[in-house]
Amino acid sequence: MASRSESSFHDSANPAPPPQPSPMKGEGVNAPQPLPNGEGVNAPQPLPNGEGFNASQPSPNGAGANALLSSGLGVNQEQQGVAPILRVKQVSKSVASADAPDGRLTILHHASLDVARGEAVALIGASGAGKSTLLALLAGLDSPTTGEITLAGFELSQLSEDERAAVRAGRVGFVFQSFQLIDGLTALENVALPLELHGVADAEARARAALDEVGLSHRLRQFPRVLSGGEQQRVALARAFAGTPAILFADEPTGSLDTATGARIIELMFALRDRHATTLVLVTHDPKLAARCDKSYVINAGVLQPWQAA
């Protein structure tokens, strides 16, 4: 998934015609659904090396999420509250491998799940089980080999990479194990940048409010290198929630923290999730953390199954 974020900034200077995704099967044209409070933009900044996850970069035409549907707007099932915010049907992912008998290595086998708006859902499993692969597929950062994924009313397999990015804009937030802050920007600038990229007029004010919400109003002008691991993850949480996302994907958010700091981050993340009525999809290897969620799934050797705490 290299070069996705690197190109997103240069492309916006060369406007292209708005992408027009196909309607979902059995539905009308998919209009972007409103966020819980009817406003907000959320987009993790491009990674320092220009690679990896890039959640909500502007679309190449510079128009953002609304460029998906410049005409013929309809009301999809997600807007009507009928469909889940995330639906996965028989999704598999395989990659070329010289070591596999048939030349293909299957990472994920026919996974299916539904995530209702406002739910907290955990994906649990050992390292290498396929958790992060599934998370990337759910967010449209990668494409499945077979199967269907519908996010916020949009069937992702019908969309181009740029259209998937436009779907994520304003709807999806991310929190990563390694924080993914830009070293050359202050805490305030790291939180404000995604909002500014999407034309939010009061980006700095909203960034300040988000940092205050995570207890960092006294660290606004500090750079990541002088912040502790816990403080860096709080900046990342502020960045994720500043745009009031409809759904937050968290990939091992405490994996780089000590036990005590990690516990405080989890408490903060769940408090923010409740306050903002945000859907949460959480990747973890911790059964205790998974047990806090509304429902959980375990991945073992690429097979996804419902999981319940013992």
Q: Which terms would index this structure?
A:
310 residues; alpha/beta; Rossmann fold; 6-stranded mixed β-sheet; 4-stranded antiparallel β-sheet; 8 helices; 20% strand; disordered N terminus
Radius of gyration: 19 Å
Element pattern in H and E: HEEEHEEHEHHHEHEHEE
- Oligomer designation: single chain
Overall structural domain count: 1
Strand neighbour order, sheet with most strands: 6-7-8-3-9-10
CATH class: Alpha Beta
> Largest sheet, described in full?
6 strands, mixed
CATH topology: Rossmann fold
Structural class by sheet pairing and helices: alpha/beta
SS elements, strand count: 10
What is the CATH homology-level superfamily? P-loop containing nucleotide triphosphate hydrolases
Q: What is the straight-line distance between the termini? A: 37 Å
Averaged pLDDT: 79
Please name the CATH architecture: 3-Layer(aba) Sandwich
Task: Please report which band the strand proportion falls in: under 5%, 5-15%, 15-25%, 25-35%, 35-45% or over 45%.
Answer: 15-25%
